[in-house]
Automatic annotation (TrEMBL), chains A, B, C, D, E, F:
GO terms for molecular function: peroxiredoxin activity. Residues 37-115 form the Carboxymuconolactone decarboxylase-like domain. It comes from Liquorilactobacillus uvarum DSM 19971. It holds the Pfam family CMD. Gene3D superfamilies: AhpD-like. This is Gamma-carboxymuconolactone decarboxylase.
Length: 125, 125, 125, 125, 125, 125
């Protein structure tokens, strides 16, 4: 299994098969190189196993929240956080922990995305 | 022990007694309310025990790296990360994990601060 | 009247009863702690009476404009600015004053939100 | 021809007559001074002829991508980039070149806007 | 008196003669156009007299605090705020008011610059 | 010649041998993976030859200026811009072109770095 295939396997495990396919499809015509590069990132992250997938997704949703204008990416990675076993309470607490560092607007935006993602996962409770 | 005293105890445990005193001293004349507010944050973080201190400091250094113009705060919280038991390799890997989300400049700035902090902790190795 | 009740009274006065209820309702299921924290902020702001409510809302819309990705919050606080007595011309001039510091995109985004909010207040002219 | 008329002529040439009119119309009631100021900017950019219009639009879409929360402006200036003769491949490569400096979220957001703009120009291929 | 002369007079009144000369001198060799453009901004701000100079400097230090990486500019405009009659307490309260919107790092950075500026003005107390 | 060797050759050509070695040395002990990753970026940029090196460095200094808190990186890439043949006037005009999009603070910070870099290249005039 080469790096791209391994990256795909990990990406599917983290963000879900459907979301992974959506990423590929949306980039296929216009910038396929970006799709390949995300695969390499997922492959690498797993290879350097200093942090586990729960820690990685917690870091990911933190950096996305902080950066702003990332609702599409938060959407994918809040689902990713759930997929790798982070609980809803831990996701919200991650966001609340960021409050003194970034203020309400960034945190409330992220909570709003979380609400949508949690709503879609209702049947899984 | 009231909330301020408890917050102080936790802040001293996380960022160190000396750094905690420096924060208080630097704000004493000009904006003591901000010192009190940081104490409340440390008190609260501990009270809502959904995340442990290692997770919290990992989130903190991630949000600081992402935000930019935070070298003073990274300085304090990279030391905080070491103090609560995050290893050097985990700190650097946290920064490297952020690379695909924020790019080189933010990550290299954070690594540069980490180098200074790790240097000061050499005797502890 | 405790701090939360006082904060609620001030929040209702600034952003309006309806918007205040929307904030509470949207956070009730997912992160009620954030609702309580905004109440404390409104309570505090009034207690430290160094700045009046007009100055505070002017500062608020300035920081929101500058930060970016804050259209939801600008929506609420442009209404808040009107509610505490800032005129439309003063709101727009606040945004125009920011132009040399932040550039057109942030300013035009804020003006666009203002246009929507002013439109909703037409009957009050 | 005065500076405003010259600026209008250049703005129409770069972003298109229709988009130029939309900018004017959207600001006419609320902040006409901002419309006039954009005209002055277009006039000036042409006067200081150190960079050509292709270089200017390449710089513009780069700064917009980097800043975030600029989808409206990217929409206008990706079309502008096409209008002054930058190819689709060059636009996408400009975005991909930014990846190591700003990370995936900013780049993917810009690519997503480009996809919409390219779609509207299909008949011109 | 033309626009540049009027702008210079206002800039000197706001940020001080010495700081105004430093801005000109630092840009003289490398980008004199930027010096001229700041003069136009000061001229314009006064002409559109919807906000007074105290309000303008309060907005200015707010947008600079929020943006980050602006210690040079904050240095000049915190002095400017004092020069137009904003008190130290009002400056600090402006920064504290931003806390729930932007978080501690931006606010503490601004307070740190204020401390330096206030120190230089000690003889004026 | 493998990708790392090719990347090194290009990095040396763009930012200079000395600066390239400084990057490697500063990361050797703490995060060598980041040094390797920058080499891959330089290798790739050259391979995808849709944009030439002058265009790439112009994009690079634009994204760095816009992002803020990037004086170290601007230092390296303003020199890089000179090395690949962008003139001083073109560099300054690139920064001035960004002014209406990002405002004075970011532009003045970049001009200040350019002044230092240009000063070091005085003997080459």
């Amino acid at each position: 299994m080469n790096k791209y295939e391994n990256g795909l396997k990990i990406r599917e495990a983290v963000i879900g098969k459907e979301a992974s396919k959506l990423v590929s499809d949306s980039l296929a015509d216009i910038a396929p190189i970006l799709d390949q590069k995300t695969l390499l990132e997922f492959d690498e992250a797993k290879t350097r196993n200093i942090l586990d997938m729960k820690q990685r997704e917690m870091i990911t949703i933190t950096t996305l929240l902080t950066q702003g204008d990332t609702s599409n990416q938060l959407n994918i990675h809040i689902q990713g956080a759930l997929n790798v076993g982070i609980t809803r309470d831990e996701i919200i607490e991650t966001f609340v922990h960021c409050l003194p560092y970034v203020g309400f607007p960034r945190v409330l935006n992220a909570v709003s995305v979380a609400k949508t993602v949690f709503g879609k996962n209702k049947h899984c409770e």
